Each structure stands twice: as structure tokens, then as C-alpha cells.
Amino acid sequence: MTPVLPAGSGVAVVRRPNRVRAAWLIALVAVTVGLCVLSVAVGSRTVPWDEIVAALGGAQENLDQAAVGQRIPRTALALLVGAALGVAGGVMQGVTRNPLADPGILGVNMGASLAIVIGIAWFGLASASGYIWVAILGAGIAAAFVYAVGSLGRGGATPLKLALAGAATSAALVSFVTAIYLPRGDIADNVRSWLIGGVGGATWPSVSLVVPFLLVGFAVSLLSARSLNTLALGDDLAAGLGERVAVARAVAALGAVLLCGAATAIAGPIAFVGLLVPHACRLLVGVDHRWLLPFSAVAGAALVVASDVVGRVVARPAEIDVGIITALVGGPFFVAIVRRQKVKSL
């Protein structure tokens, strides 16, 4: 294995052989499958294996089988949302060349949230499909605004300026969301619960609505992997190699916005998944986005499913939403990254 130095970083990254990456991917998929089994079996009540098998066959004759019937779409939604946020975080870190970038820190989650809250409070937004379209629009506007603000001044859109612009924008959007829903007693409880972020109450119709948007987002993001590798070399070198830098950034960002907007619409603004997952995967497979993005999808799915299981177990018979669990894990991780003092660019 040969150490390489990514552009702008001060840390050597090991380029791992493909067979090692494939082995890690198989192991990660196996862990994710095991977590899915736990998600179906464990909750406020633990379901015996024979009842799980019967429920998988379509039986709904008792409480155990009914519980399994509710947990299967919930697990599927957790997989989709986790994969979407993991890939979106990896893409955003690649686009901005900033390892602190993720949908939450750059304000994209809150842009989607603000758009939905405005739609609910002022325009009577009620349909699930409407949530998705409005969330994607809000996420796109927030991403464009952060990039425009981060591009001001000398040097253009540097990783540090993008992170600062995103943090400031996210804080402002949180204030706007709160100011809109707090005076509205008719929607305050539902909006407050949704803003925590979670996958409870998932149904197959709601999952099927979000799947097409996520599939398009995954496709655009994965097809942008080679361009993201070129952008990691720096804008000047990427342009010299024939890459259309602005177009490559815009296309990759579109994939991330689709993923983030759709995931936020269906599950609320779940934080830190897009930050933590690409970092962990980069330690396993290096900085090649052709491997990093698929790993981030699987690892993000595993993290959200695991967080959902933990939230159901630690406070039985009540539940703790996924967004709270990921914040408890991701907050200290974020502080640790900042304290390393080597996070200006990838």
C-alpha cells in the first residue's frame, strides 16, 4: 500500500488494494443485514423468531406479528434515509473539499425544513409527495445561497468560508423555523416532533413515494464520483485535466440536494450522519469517491438502523428518535474533528 497526499491536506492517506476494499464492503453489508434483523426483532417488545417468520409470510394474527409488520417498513425507511444522508455527506465533502461539510452543517437540511414548515403554516401543505418536492426546492435554495455567500471575497469559495457560511445560514434558518411554528398552536406539536428526525410511523406507501427521488439522487451522485476525484486535486489542476469544474460541482451538488431533500421530507432533519459516515469510510477505503460513496451508503444505512434500534431499547416502552441518538454520537465526533486542526480541505 502506497501513501498518497490529497490536495490541500496535511495528512497522508493510504491507498488500499481493491481486494481489501471489497472485503471491508462485504463485512459492512453483513453488519447491516444483522442490524436489519435486530431492527425487526427488537423494540418495545421482543418478538420470537417463529413469529417473525410467520409475519414475513404475511400473517397478522397477533400483536407480535403486527409489530413485525410495522417494523419492516420502518427498517426499510431507516436504510434508505441513512444511505441517502451518508452519500450526500460524502458528495458535499467532495464538492467543497471540506471534511466538515455535511447536509446539516451546510444548512441544506434546515433549508428543506424551512420550506416544509412554510408550506404547512402558510400554504396548507399536507400531501407526502408535496413535502418531498418542497423539501428538495428548499434544500437547493439553501445550498445555492451558502455557496454564493462562501464565494464572496478573495479566493472564492474556499472550504473554510463555505463551512462558516453554512454554519451561519443553518443557525439563521433554525431561528426562522422556530419563529414560524411556535405561534401556530395547531401545527406546533407535529412540526416539533418532525424536526427531531426519526423513522417511526413509516409505511410502505410513504417509502414508495420517496424511492424514485432517492434513486435519481444515488445515480447522479455515483456518476459524479470520478469528477469528485478530479476536483480533489484542486480547481486549477482539474481544469487543466479537462474537467469542467463548475458543471462537475453543480451536477454532484444536485445529486446531494435530491438525496438530502427527499430524506429530510420523509424523516425530518437527522444530523451528523453525513459528517460521521464519510469520515469513518475514508479510514477504510481512502479518498477514491468511486469506493467512498458506496461505502458511505452502506455505512449510513447501518448507522441509522442501529440508532433506531438503540432508541427503541434504551427507554422502553417509550422511544428516543433517531435524530437524538445521532446527535449524541455525532456531536463529540464533530468536536474531535475540529480540534485536530487539520480540516481546512480534503
TrEMBL record:
Domain of life: Bacteria
Location relative to the cell: Cell membrane
Major place of residence: membrane
Bilayer topology: Multi-pass membrane protein
Keywords tagged on the record: Cell membrane, Membrane, Transmembrane, Transmembrane helix, Transport
A UniProt-annotated Pfam family: FecCD
Gene3D superfamilies reported for this sequence: ABC transporter involved in vitamin B12 uptake, BtuC
Parts of the chain that traverse the membrane: 22-42, 72-92, 104-125, 131-150, 162-182, 202-225, 246-271, 291-310, 322-339
Sequence similarity: Belongs to the binding-protein-dependent transport system permease family. FecCD subfamily.
Name of the protein in its database record: Iron chelate uptake ABC transporter family permease subunit
Organism: Microbacterium thalli
